[in-house]
Amino acid sequence: MSLLPGEDPLSQALRELLPPDTFWPAGGEVFLEPLPSSRQVVRFSVAGGEAAAVGKFFSSYPPATSPDRSLEREYANYLRAAALGLDQGPGLIPRLLGRHPQTRLGLVLAAVPGPNLDQALARACHQGEQEQLFSCLEKLAGLLAVFHARPPAEQPSSPQPALGYWEKLQRQLQGLGLLTPEEAQLFREEKAAWAAKLPLLPDHLVLVHGDATPTNFLFPDGRAVALDLERLGLGDRLWDLSWVAGELKHAWGLRTGYLDGAEPAIGHFFAAYFRALPADAALQRRIFCLNPFYMALAELRIARNGYLPWEHRRALVAEAGHCLAGGRSLV
Q1: Is residue 170 within 8 Å of residue 187, measured between CB atoms?
Q2: Which of 33, 41, 268, 311 has the least CB density, counted as fewest CB within 10 Å?
Q3: pTM over 0.85
Q4: Which CATH superfamily is domain 117-330 in?
């Protein structure tokens, strides 16, 4: 943690962006706490007060790199989400305070306290606190149901984005040496089989979060809040739902060595989503039947991460194969 002098241009920018009722002394020092992220993200606070804001920084402005363009897009998506009412009341997203490109501040949000889903998963895996995890999953299911219900869309979903992503993942995993030649051939056959099945269960596009990983959801005051909206947009709801399922499977396997230990949590999450939506029989059947394919995508996506143990990455690849082979019998 470092200190920012009160007269610093960044401190002055924060005073301009924060709501009038926020305690932010005109000349006082500001605490800067770096947060884990692939870009520069900082929590700002003042002496004697709680965290007031979180800022994400451009590396340079105007945006010239892919990460900076992504931050520009995320700012636009927070505006879009607010226009859809997702920040009303307690809010399903953090309150957008603005930005100040002159100081490289690409995005400033009101800080949200509370544990994230990954912390709840850790307690469930290591300390057996499943009740708290299940409660978080119920709130997350409710949050995603709200996202998926607005705005209503007439445009039909398409399997092409998922099939194209499959091709990308297979190329990357082969390049990393994570697929044996036999697995690569098996996955090509599975893709062809699923390409014929996916169109049989249609849906319409919905508003998806697009990056439903455990650290992107906080649980303050008995509610769920979604962070990191850079991939917010219209898409197939399974990009959210099956991503959560795949992340649960990964987290459980990494922490306990037992991938199937996540099954009760996955079942609880989907049941909560069906209650929150509510989903008719046709939509429930679609989700049930197509989740194995999208969940396999999530598992293969995670398996690319080089910081994970090799054995776990290989286990995720094998689990994805089981999902694909077993899931085809459901359609």
Answers
A1: yes
A2: 311
A3: yes
A4: Aminoglycoside phosphotransferase (APH), C-terminal lobe (3.90.1200.10)
Q: How far, CA to CA in Å, does 277 sit from each of 88, 95, 205, 284?
A: 19, 24, 15, 10
CB 179 within 8 A of CB 317: yes
- Which of helix, strand or coil describes residue 236? coil
Return the number of other C-beta atoms located less than 10 Å from residue 31's C-beta. Answer: 17
Give the domain ranges of the chain.
2-110, 117-330
Buried b (16+ CB within 10 A) or exposed e, 143-173: bbbbbbeeeeeeeebebeebbeebeebbeeb
10-residue averages of pLDDT along the chain (331 residues): 76 81 65 88 78 89 94 96 88 93 94 92 92 96 94 86 97 96 94 95 95 96 94 96 98 96 97 92 96 98 97 97 89 74
Query: What is the SS3 assignment for 202?
Result: coil
Cα pseudo-dihedral 114, 117, 118, 121, rounded to 10 = 110
| 300 and 317 Cβ atoms separated by less than 8 Å | yes
91/85 Cα distance (integer angstroms)? 9
Kindly state the DSSP code that residue 94 receives in the 8-state scheme.
Answer: P
3-state helix, strand, coil in the chain (%, to 5): 55, 15, 35
Biggest CA–CA distance in the chain, Å, is 66
| pLDDT at position 22 | 66
